Amino acid sequence: xxxxxMLLTGAVMLLVLGLVNFYIGxxxxxxxxxxxxxxxxxxxxxxxxxxxxxxxxxxxPWPKVVKPAARLFKVIGSYYLACMEFAVIMLPLADLLYWVxxxxxxxxxxxxxxxxxxxxxxxAVFLIWGSRNAWSTVIRTHPxxxxxxxxxxxxxTVAVASDLHLGNIVGNRHLRKMVAExxxxxxxxxxxxxxxxxxxxxxxxxxKMSLQLxxxxxxxxxxxxxxxxxxxxxxxxxxxEMMAGIGIRVLxxxxxxxxxxxxxxxxxxxxxxxxxxxxxxxxxLEGLDHSRPILMMDHKPTGFDIAAKAGVDVLLSGxxxxxxxxxxxxxxxRLFELDWGYLLKDKLHVIVSSGYGTWGPPxxxxxxxxxxxxxxxxxxSKSYQEEPLSAKTVLV
Length: 396
Hints:
By secondary structure, this protein is of the alpha/beta class. The chain folds into two domains: 2-133, no CATH class; 138-395, 4-Layer Sandwich (Purple Acid Phosphatase, chain A, domain 2), CATH 3.60.21. The chain is built from 15 helices and 13 strands. Strands 5-4-3-2-12-1-13 form a seven-stranded mixed sheet. Strands 6-7-8-9-11-10 form a six-stranded mixed sheet, with helices on one face. Strand 8, helix 13 (304-310) and strand 9 form a beta-alpha-beta unit. The longest helix has 37 residues, at 67-103. It comes from Paenibacillus typhae. This is Calcineurin-like phosphoesterase domain-containing protein. One of its GO terms (molecular function) is hydrolase activity.
């Protein structure tokens, strides 16, 4: 019954996707017929549908000999996904305008060409600006005050990165920049809050990305948790072994001690449906000394009330990308209590990152590639009494 439900869901999704792409393709066909009168319908629709479904084609586990072509399809398809979202928003508006002009008796002879050129120009601006937002990173500093002490007189600096999505699109160039920026913070602890991989581990291995991650330096170590995309990739054991080999511990419902602070790492919520569940927060924290600071990573930003009651001091999440491309952030804002930024829940400090990398198209609109610099101000430190709590954002 479960397999049948999944099959039916997949069939419905393919049907909807096909109809949406036919709608987009038809409008493009009308425009191209004006520009290229001799274009053949069969040639056009074959090329268009290959591009429209290129991302899905690229994700098929092809034989090794055709994998380079599949990677190219995935890159092309990723950009098409951004174009598709743009078209789904803009084309109905253009159709509505066309209909209204017809009601008013306006001559619509040149409308198709003029509207088409306008939309192409707007799409170019969208792609250029969105690419800038995706590859140009900001560092957001969040000072948090915790009424606990570890006997030090200086605050702890914790560098946080989530949603790297390392793969065929986000590669070594962007990763090297992340490593350099994090090391420049001179952090005491580095936390990777899930979705380090973009599904498949193959490009991570092929491009030797672990050699870049190995360069991360922190006084008390580097820790990570799994995100939903590590589960989708199906190589968790291999991934965690590789990370351990470069000195990064992947916490799976585990707690580590780092510089007098507890680092709790939950399995991703995906484990509840794919790998037999995960521990509750109270069970995970059972037996800990709650007079010491507890920082917890949970990739998907849920369960704030439970974490607060269980005694977590700082909860770090990602997953949402803040919608990545507007107006998706209107959706994530409704789906999550906090889809991006900072929230104080009783004594719990919640920080949700929009992520460093991207899923699908390397495009962001109303969202930025970001790294988090967390300044943990503890009792006994001079800054605990004097430091004003104000977040800062720096473009790098």
